[in-house]
Each structure stands twice: as C-alpha cells, then as structure tokens.
Specification:
Layout (H helix, E strand, L loop, with lengths): L2 H4 L10 H13 L6 H15 L22 H22 L6 H18 L6 H11 L3 H7 L1
Helix pairs in contact: 2-3, 2-4, 3-4, 4-5, 5-6
Length: 146
C-alpha cells in the first residue's frame, strides 16, 4: 500500500511539524483537486514514515482498501493521504502520541463522501461499513476492538 508513495519524488528527509501541518491543512481544504494527493502527499508521508514523534498504523480494519478492494490508484492515494492527515493531526495538535485510528478514519470517510458525490458509481463496501458504524455511534469501539 505505502509502496505507492515510494515513487513520489520530492522528499529526502522528514519535514518539520510546521511543514506537515501546513500540508495537512492544504490537503484538507481541497482533497479532490488535481494532484493534491501527490503534491502534499510527499510531505505527509515523509513525516509519517521518518518522524520519531508519530506512529501511523494502517490495516484492513481501519483502511479497507488494504483488504483487496478494487479501487483505482488515485482513489487509494487520496484515501491514504486523508487517513494520514486525520491520524497525524490528532497526534500533533491533540498531544496524543501513538496511533489515532478513529480521527484517521473520520478524515478518510469525509473525503470518501466527497469522492462519492463526484462519482455516483464509486463505492467501497469496506468504507460504507465504516460509515454505517459511525452513523450508529459504534465506529470508535469497533476500531478499538480490532
């Protein structure tokens, strides 16, 4: 999954906290704009993988595209960056060190809904299930149980 980012040239070392927070803010403002994931994804991924101050954990429970769902490369890239934005923001702004899958999934679901508005046929059964759990108030407990 993260192998997608290894082919995004443009980063050699971990960016600063300020750099990644700016990148997160820019991505969240318009996540579906052309090349947004690639433009800000480099900074976000570099920080997530190189900084000793954060931990991002993605698995098939909290990130359904890892479960083998058939989604396009751009959709997976955008959803990955959205997930990381939620996780990193919670750790950096909330002072919560360690994996933050609940805010990460909420961030990803927000972008997923935007993607669905633009593409009526675009569906992810796994993301739909997470959205359903959130609507029932069960998502956070579901993520903690896995």
């Amino acid at each position: 999954m993260l192998a997608l980012f290894l082919f995004l040239p443009g980063w050699a070392q971990a960016p600063s906290r300020a750099d990644v927070l700016r990148a997160i803010k820019a991505f969240e403002a318009a996540p579906l704009s052309p090349n947004m994931s690639r433009t800000y994804g480099r900074t976000i991924l570099a920080f997530a993988t190189e900084s000793p101050d954060v931990t991002v954990v993605m698995n098939a429970t909290n990130f359904p595209p890892m479960a083998g769902e058939k989604l396009g490369e751009e959709e997976v890239l955008t959803l990955t960056i959205a997930y990381m934005c939620g996780d990193l923001r919670a750790q950096l702004e909330g002072g919560k060190t360690g994996e933050q899958s609940y805010p990460a999934v909420l961030s990803m679901l927000k972008v997923y809904q935007q993607m669905r508005q633009g593409k009526a046929k675009f569906r992810s059964p796994g993301l739909d299930k997470l959205a359903e759990l959130q609507a029932k108030g069960q998502l956070e407990a579901h993520l903690k149980s896995k």
